[in-house]
Specification:
2 helices; Immunoglobulin-like; seven-stranded antiparallel β-sheet
Length: 316
């Protein structure tokens, strides 16, 4: 069913350590050696975030089949057939790192997204004909690299050293598969994935530009309460796209001497002008009068830069 499995196996495909051909993640299944394919070699998540050279991660598409001969694990009563999984290995010899995802029945590969997080990456097995993928998360869209029936992108992203954004299945809102001409092949919607679903919405704040000359720019802040803690989701539209020299930031503000940077916005604002970010409010948030969206050109600003949107801070 997958083009990557129809191509001849190469020596690189056989580099999955033999000691890991049994997959406990798939309930005692066996990885079929002849149907193992190396689909990518990528930096580790720690290397991406720290810049330090570390052993690369080898990503494999593997096929597993249940067995009765491995450690007494019985074949399930309802046998779904062979399963397709993603495996990764890093390093070599006795210190090799290894992981494998739960298997997906081959018959279900077209039925929905198989997005998973493994080894610091998000990965998805996609059918033949899918050349581009869009993952829509709570904090923005990700367009992964698509090669050999696998879509792949880091699941963490840093911004100016202030914040690490994590894109995981928990916050997935939808997946769209595109063909070579840009046509939509399939689209899967999972609803609005709100990381504050266990919290109670207590206020919604309007954000306005400081002058009327930017009337097309607007935003809202949703405030959620969970016990004694409060979190916010900030959404804005009509913003100018980021350049390589600037980034949007969220501040709490009363005066230049009483202001606090909550963090830089990630992902960056693109040509659609949309900003979406979220995070926790500090315990002393009530000592500030306003919340700001600013445009910063410094990595560690001490006071707010150019104010793009502002609103009165209310807590409900």
């Amino acid at each position: 069913m997958l083009a990557v499995l129809r191509r001849p196996q190469t020596e690189a495909d056989r580099t999955l350590p033999a000691s890991h051909l049994y997959s406990q993640a798939a309930g005692g299944a066996v990885i079929v050696p002849s149907l193992t394919r190396l689909v990518a070699t990528v930096p580790s998540a720690n290397e991406l975030l720290t810049g330090r050279a570390l052993p690369k991660i080898r990503v494999y598409l593997v096929v597993t089949t249940p067995t009765t001969a491995h450690r007494g694990v019985a074949r399930p009563a309802v046998y779904p057939g062979d399963l397709v999984s993603i495996a990764w290995a890093s390093g070599a010899g006795p210190a090799v790192g290894f992981g494998v995802s739960q298997g997906v029945p081959a018959a279900l590969l077209n039925a929905g997204s198989t997005l998973l997080s493994l080894g610091g990456y998000n990965l998805e097995i996609v059918p033949d004909g899918v050349t581009r993928v869009r993952w829509s998360f709570f904090e923005g869209a990700v367009y992964p690299t698509v090669e050999q029936n696998v879509a792949l992108a880091p699941s963490t992203r840093g911004n100016a050293g202030h914040r690490i954004t994590v894109f995981t299945r928990k916050f997935l809102e939808g997946v769209t598969w595109y063909g070579s001409r840009g046509e939509v092949i399939r689209s899967f919607h999972y609803g609005t994935a709100n990381p504050f679903a266990t919290g109670k919405p207590v206020a919604q704040l309007n954000l306005q530009p400081p002058t009327s000359t930017s009337a097309k720019v607007t935003g809202i802040v949703d405030v959620y309460k969970n016990g004694n803690s409060r979190k916010i989701k900030v959404t804005a539209v009509g913003l100018a796209a980021n350049t390589r020299r600037n980034a949007y930031a969220i501040w709490l503000y009363t005066s230049p001497s009483h202001s606090r940077l909550l963090g830089f916005v990630s992902p960056e604002v693109r040509s659609n002008g949309r900003l979406s970010t979220a995070g926790a409010l500090p315990r002393n948030a009530q000592s500030y009068a306003h919340i700001l969206i600013t445009l910063e050109d410094k990595a560690s600003p001490k006071v707010p830069g150019k104010i793009v949107l502002e609103g009165r801070l209310l807590f409900g």
